[in-house]
Write a structure and sequence with these properties.
- A hairpin with a 2-residue loop joins strand 10 and strand 11.
- This protein is of the alpha+beta class.
- It has five helices and 14 strands.
């Protein structure tokens, strides 16, 4: 889905909506509908009419392509669909220009005398990334769980003992082979590469800032030590607190 979106929607939404955000909304709609008890089978992609006309003029078969990609995502997640998914691109005047929203619903299948389906190649399972985060500029913490909470509270999987960080500040969640960072309503906010976010798909080298406290995200094989050091240098750590005598405060 990401490769399709990168090639198709990036040109339409250049400088406005990142293609990763579009892919995330489609995957999120599938996962959220599955969590409610029944995975959705019909998905509506809402665009401003001008954007919809431009997109469909260039790619009239986009809805069919997206439906096939959505079926592949469902297979990767081991979800059983009542029928093959359908995607509809809707021209919605209420949708702001250069934005996209995705909704899903579960409609009953309509029986017919003869039903045919185009063959679909079996989905190749996407490997879980061997991901990690770097705290304090040096301390590396591997990410093994699907849901990881970050904050000052002691029951978080990653504890950040800094007054700028909320007790429950952010969450990392594994979605379809990628970690996504979510802000949990923190007072200081959550930023990725300097941009305030509520949710964002992470890529190796991204710098997450929790109220000003930097955390570097990496993946084995996806980011070299040199580039990680370069990413680390873009967000300098605050100076070490000093004792009254001028020496560093013992940890």
């Amino acid at each position: 889905m990401e490769s399709l979106i990168e090639g198709t929607l990036a040109r339409l939404f250049a400088g406005h909506v990142h293609p990763r955000d579009v892919a995330l909304q489609l995957a999120r709609a599938l996962e959220d509908s599955a969590a409610s008890g029944a995975p959705g089978t019909h998905y509506s992609v809402r665009l401003n009419p001008a954007d919809a006309q431009q997109l469909l003029s260039a790619h009239p078969d986009l809805a069919e392509q997206l439906a096939l990609e959505l079926l592949g995502l469902a297979r990767e997640a081991h979800l059983t669909l009542a029928q093959p998914p359908e995607v509809t691109v809707v021209a919605d005047p209420a949708q702001a220009e250069h934005t996209i929203s995705v909704t899903s619903e579960n409609r009953p299948a309509v029986a017919s005398a003869t039903q045919t389906m185009a063959p679909v190649q079996p989905a190749v399972a996407r490997a879980t990334p061997r991901a990690f985060v770097i705290l304090d500029g040096e301390r590396t913490i591997p990410l093994h769980e699907a849901v990881i909470n970050i904050g000052r509270r002691l029951d978080n999987q990653i504890i950040v003992d800094d007054p700028r960080v909320s007790r429950s500040h952010a969450q990392l969640r594994l979605r379809f082979g990628h970690y996504v960072v979510y802000n949990l309503g923190s007072s200081g906010g959550t930023f990725v590469n300097g941009q305030r976010i509520e949710e964002c798909v992470l890529r190796p080298g991204d710098v997450i800032s929790l109220g000003g406290v930097p955390i570097i995200y990496g993946e084995d094989g996806g980011q070299t030590g040199t580039s990680l050091r370069a990413a680390r240098s873009t967000r300098p750590l605050p100076p070490t607190p000093l004792e009254p005598g001028g020496g560093p405060k013992p940890s």
